[in-house]
User: Fold this.
Amino acid sequence: MKTMVEARNLRKSYKRADGSTIEAVKGVDLDIHQGEIFSLLGPNGAGKTTTISMISGLVAPTEGDATIGGHSITKQPMAAKRLMGFVPQEIALYPELSARQNLAFFGRMYGLGGKKLSRRVDELIEFVDLADRQNDRIDTFSGGMKRRVNLAAGLLNSPPLIYMDEPTVGIDPQSRRRILDTVKLLRDEQDMTVLYTTHLMEEAQELSDRVGIMDHGEIIAMGTQAELTQQVGEEDRLEITTGAQNVGEALTERMQQDIAGLTRVLYNPPEPIGENSGESTPARLTVFAKRGRTALPQIIQTLDAAGIDIQSVEVREPDLEAVFLALTGRALRD
Amino acid sequence: MRKILAITAKEIYTVFRDRNLILLMFATPLVLSTIIGLAFGGIGDSDVPDFAAIPVAVVNHDEGVDLQETVNLQGQFANLDALPFNLQDIGLPSELSGVGPNPLLQSGSELNFGDILAGILLSQPITGTATLGGAEIDVAQFECTLLGPPQEEGAASFAAEGSLDDLLDATAVQDAEQARAAVQSGEFAAAVIIPPGFSRRMIPQFAFDEGGRLYTQPADETGSVEVYANNGRPISSRILHSVVAGVINQFERVNVALSATLETSVNTLVDSLAVGDIDLSAVNLPATAAALQGLDATTLEPLGCLIAPGANNVTVAQQPLDALQEAPQFARIIVPIGAAQAVFFALFTGVFGMNSIYEERKYWTLQRLIVSPTPRSYLLAGKLVGNLAVVFLQILILQAALTLIASAVLGAPTFIWGTDIAALLAVTVALALCVSGLGVFVVGLAKTPEQVQLFGPMINISLAVLGGAFGFALPEQAARFSLIYWGVDAYVDLSLSQPDVSLNILVLFCQGLALFLLGTWLFKRRIDL
Assistant:
């Protein structure tokens, strides 16, 4: 299988105002194959955007290198950039220009011109279904429409590789669905390689052929979804939202001892939301069990006996969220 | 190149699509200029007391030159030894070789350029005699055809024209310090101080080079006429400056013409002597000298150009005066005010135009451009050229709009910026370079867009105060630090049909280039994300 992206020991450090150094990415190794959707999954601040920025030539790595189709992004940036499209998290469009003008302008930056450019813009306008609004200014568009133009701008040069950095942030479910379908279409019909970053486990699960899980600047796990979920075993995960009462360590240990099939019990106490809001996140108990539904009555009984209010219970099959939780002890949304 | 042009075109397009920006770039300076123009210039083509009878002090310390010294071979011609023959050997008398009195000019014959200039400014007819070869000749008889036919004949006609008499209310003052103090107190708008040695400087100095060829030595820069101006009356002083410069230019033009004629004649003669084409033994020098005694004013026509004040007045000095007198009051006001406002508001365009790089970074369009296969230097070049083009267009459009406003106010089509379109465009290009260079520099210097928004207006307003854009003028030495001064000065000169704005263009261009390069160097780090 041909490798489209190969990153070795990618590191990025930034200097803080106080002179100290923060390492945003700590030696990432990555291989992305042609025609696959590879997702970088991780919470905000995990280093996904910095990684994608280095691979796309947006920021220079402090150490390491990446090749795109065999071209080094640091030594042959122009050749590497010709092979890639880029869809940033932000709406990287000129609001005072129309959708068509934006696409034509960025198309020129990829060396397109004349009829070829015009034809490509027509195709993309059609592809994102905005033919009737193509001459309207971007600042008159809804969030979802802007996202679609943003995506189209990344496809102008018909690239074999496209980077998508959280392309569904802040849009309605319909537009989100449309974008996810488009991403699958690009892989399935155009054999395009997609590097997709997200903090939403559902998106990574739906789209990805392979997933790299990032946390604190490192890829902590990488593989197909099946390979990753195997790491946490065939366990169900019970998410129990509780009242403000403290679930002590003694209680979680007793649950593990007394209830058959429980492998691990994690407790996340309530945390304040903001500094002065006075609100806090609900306390959450995560229980890993061989047969979650069987163990559930006994779990509820134990908590009730300990005087813990149960507000909601959800039983989940093994998924990427569970993998992340198992690897970091934290939920992705944390 | 196509990518740079695409970025430039996008810059221009986005600026001219932004209504708020257009309001700031065009409406505000136009409204301000028009209000000030109407307030101080009135409506219509009325007579203007402000620029008539400008009070001027004239101080003349020039002692003139002795014409005998002027034609004294050893005094006037340095390095006579370099000639390919000996003057004594060829029979020239000692008088002509510089020893003893000159037989052509009697002692006491003098020429005083300071008197001529003072006479022009004071609108006094220049009378008197020049003593040539023992005969007294009335200088009023002199004509100057060297530079083309005079419009009027002789010195007497000058006073009859009286154009300066309408414009200037000149008073002769004996002491330079007294004149300067009177200017400071506001009694005079300006003082023209003619220094000692002025005539000596104006007379061309000749020398023979090592090969025995005659050439003109560079003029001594000391002894220049000083125009000491009251900063509260910049336009009056500018008018006076142009009058004085015009007369002196004419002196110099005549000198150049005379020098060229003399160099050619002497060098031809020397060549002929050297190759033996002329048999000096056959020349009766005493007879030649005697013949020269009979020369009259018509024969000494080129010298007439030096002496006859009518020649000086008619061909150069009067040209700007005509332009001034034809220009209506509103036009005279709107040119400096409008130009100053145009440049002042262009400064904001320059700074905030470059600041858009921060906006692009904030909205990620810059990142999208960087990820495309476009070198960063192209991105920067496109931005810079775009900014330059926007500033250039802004100033041009404002000039066009001010012309329309002036025409509407005056009730007739009036192009207020002079007739030299090429010079006008050259000044505008240099100014646009300087303004956008400053923009690059300010943005490069600042670390954040907030700093640009703070420092940009501060720097712009400081330059406007220095350059006199707010209606009051600081000392010229200070004003020269402002690009507004150089720009407005050039536009006013062009509007007065004074085409020599090369110094202004040079200063603006160099200043702009320096700011551009320094700013670009600082600015490059802004697109290193």
Notes: Chain B touches chain A through 21 residues (CB under 8 Å). The radius of gyration of chain B is 29 Å. The first helix of chain B runs from residue 2 to 17.
